[in-house]
TrEMBL record:
InterPro entries: GH, Glyco_hydro_77. Transmembrane segments: none annotated. This is 4-alpha-glucanotransferase. NCBIfam families: malQ (TIGR00217). PANTHER family: 4-ALPHA-GLUCANOTRANSFERASE DPE1, CHLOROPLASTIC/AMYLOPLASTIC, 4-ALPHA-GLUCANOTRANSFERASE DPE1, CHLOROPLASTIC_AMYLOPLASTIC. GO terms for biological process: carbohydrate metabolic process. Belongs to the disproportionating enzyme family.
Length: 634
């Protein structure tokens, strides 16, 4: 790597080398660095261009980050000495500023609390909401089912927290995007989860209209969740109710999102394929009636999400409802259309090669530009976090290491031909801390896999929780990577046995995850070695159960009893784990080869709370953790 190119890359946060999954140095090809710099509007195509870019004057930082109690002494670029406070007041420097987003001349000053309050000890569920079908839902779980889960889990089982799969907005088109981790927008909610019969418009409708709507209801007993059938039915029902509503023109961010939805109905889900005039928000001409309709759907989502949160509070949950934030959005979706200047639109995010993916991974999601985030005072990130916390008691940040760096793949390149681009973690964490403080919410970072230690350390420093999963809790610095006993797990963590991307308890015990991947040809050679590895891991875990004095006659319950012994403040399991379901919700590396995000629970929601396996798991997890204030426990 040329020294001047390396210096230019460092100045813009572009990595010229990194530590790979085997903790060895991996050098990035110079042409990849040049291509990534180009996506940041930095010309490094020739040595002369590199020198010009290095010689260009460096602008002052656009955003200043402080912690509560810090003294701000510096002035603005023009000698400004007065700070305009978020509440409209003015303060002369030097000064200690209150928490908030303030202005010093053209710069944003973010002042955040030093750390969040301690998280209460509790146990609870990790939910795939679509899988929770009830007698009242239409083909898949919905927001009203979330309220039922909160209320009954607290009062009957003593649960104190619910972690919900992402419920961010889709494009209102067919086929429906099934992955909750590829939303059209992270700033708005998914109307696919609306409970039609709970809407005031439905209750106020005449008998004939209600009968017409009831007749649209799709079956609840399909083998797999049929998203297209559910959305088609709910969209028709909502249209019938909309005819009787007063129309209001939306404003602000909601207006931009609703305009996208109205255009998507007419031209498809990807704005990059729309007619040229419609691709630009400044020249687009959506139907005002349809814009108002989609804004109304968001009002309904907010009402039902708020009702689910109230149900958790009223039942006495110690934490409440925690919503999951995906790492990105669809490249042709609502967010990249409405706030496109914050994105590197031609880049996709992924991961470098590792033992599980030797060619690397391309997630197909466009990253934020770190320079644009700073220029805009991190408002795009602030808006996303605020939107989640409007109806949540906590937020889980998927791939939290992305607040530090993301693997950028330049246009036309393979996943392995990328590099890391760095963000300002102090600014990103300040936004998270400030927004969570204002919402009284907990923050959980998903720091699984190959993650730099400083990520987990910073989470804990800010009063946030990291993640701990039984399958991965090993001493990787010791020979043979022994399992970590429960008493040595991190206290500042949300602990679980598995995740939606990993085998369930029953699936792990039966090596179902190996069988499925072998059947799909995901292994380079014979699967014998994979079966042997799974059997060895199973033996190690059974030995850990024995060491901890946990009975092994019922292994599903035994693993939950083992989880209950960990030091972590939050312990979560999934209904799939407690029920002994062998199929995991998602199998990474597949799309239609496996029924990702479409597998319903094997029991109806009403039967979940009386299932013997669920009761045994709840009893085990409640040990050592106080029951919800309004419940009696199992």
């Amino acid at each position: 790597m040329d020294d001047e190119l390396a210096a230019l890359a460092e100045a813009h946060g572009v990595a010229t080398h990194y530590e790979d999954a085997n903790q060895r140095r991996a050098d990035v090809d110079p042409d990849v660095v040049v291509a990534v710099l180009a996506q940041l509007d930095v010309d490094a195509s020739t040595p002369e261009a590199v020198r010009r870019a290095l010689a260009a004057p460096k602008p002052p930082p656009s955003t200043i980050v402080l912690r509560e109690g810090d003294v701000l002494e510096e002035t603005g670029p023009g000698g400004d000495r007065a700070v305009e406070l978020e509440d409209g007041g003015r303060v002369e420097l030097p000064a200690v500023l209150p928490p908030g987003y303030h202005r010093l001349g053209a710069r944003t000053v973010i002042v955040a609390p030093r750390r969040l309050p301690p998280v209460p000890r509790a146990w609870g569920w990790m939910l795939q909401l679509y899988a929770m079908r009830s007698a009242e839902s239409w083909g898949m779980g919905d927001y009203a089912d979330l309220a039922t889960l909160a209320r009954r889990s607290a009062t009957e089982l003593g649960a104190g927290v619910l972690l919900v799969n992402p419920v961010q907005a889709i494009s209102p088109t067919l086929p429906v995007e099934r992955s909750p981790y590829s939303p059209s927008s992270r700033r708005f909610a998914n109307p696919l989860y609306l409970r039609i019969s709970d809407l005031r418009a439905y209750r106020d409708a005449d008998d004939a209209t209600r009968a017409e709507i009831d007749a649209l209801r799709p079956p609840n007993d399909t083998e797999l969740i049929d998203y297209d059938a559910v959305w088609t039915a709910k969209a028709k029902a909502l249209e019938l109710l909309w005819r009787r509503q007063e129309h209001r023109a939306p404003e602000g961010e909601l207006l931009g999102f609703a305009r996208f939805c109205a255009l998507a109905e007419a031209h498809g889900p990807d704005w990059r394929e729309w007619p040229p005039a419609q691709r630009d928000p400044a020249t687009a001409t959506p139907d005002p009636e349809r814009v108002a309709f989609h804004a109304w759907l968001q009002e309904l989502c907010e009402q039902q999400l708020a009702a689910a949160r109230r149900a958790a509070h009223d039942a006495g949950m110690a934490v409440g409802v925690v919503h999951d934030l995906p790492v990105g959005v669809h490249p042709g979706g609502a967010d990249t259309w409405a706030v496109r200047d914050a994105f590197a639109a031609d880049v996709t995010v992924g991961a470098p090669p590792d033992a599980f993916s030797r060619l690397g991974q391309d997630w197909g999601l466009p990253p934020w530009r770190p320079d644009r985030l700073a220029e805009q005072g991190y408002e795009p990130f602030r808006a996303v976090v605020r939107s989640v916390l409007r109806h949540a008691d906590g937020i889980r940040i998927d791939h939290v290491a992305g607040l530090w760096r993301l693997w950028w793949i330049p246009p036309g390149e393979e996943p392995k031909r990328g590099t890391y681009v760095h963000y300002d973690p102090e600014a990103m964490l300040a936004v998270l801390t400030l927004e969570a403080h204002r919402a009284g919410a907990v923050v959980v970072g998903e720091d699984l896999g190959t993650v730099e230690p400083k990520v987990t350390e910073a989470l804990h420093e800010h009063g946030m929780l990291s993640s701990a999963v039984l399958w991965f809790q090993r001493e990787y610095d010791l020979p043979d990577h022994p399992l970590i006993p429960p008493e040595k797990w991190t206290a500042s963590a949300m602990a679980s046995i598995s995740t939606h991307d990993l085998p369930t308890v029953a699936g792990f015990l039966a090596a179902e995850h190996v069988r499925v991947r072998a059947d799909l040809g995901q292994f380079e050679g014979p699967a014998d070695g994979e079966y042997e590895a799974a059997d060895r891991e199973r033996g190690e875990l059974l030995e850990l159960l024995k060491q901890e004095g946990v009975p092994a006659d019922d292994l599903v319950t035994g693993f939950h009893a083992l989880l209950a012994k960990v030091r972590s403040v939050l312990v979560l399991t999934s209904p799939q784990d407690a029920l002994g379901e062998k199929r995991q919700p998602n199998l990474p590396g597949t799309t239609d080869q496996y029924p990702n995000w479409r597998i319903p629970l094997p029991v109806a929601l009403a039967d979940l709370f009386d299932d013997p396996g669920v009761r045994r798991a709840a009893v085990a997890l409640a040990a050592g953790r106080p029951p919800a204030a309004g419940g009696n426990g199992p």
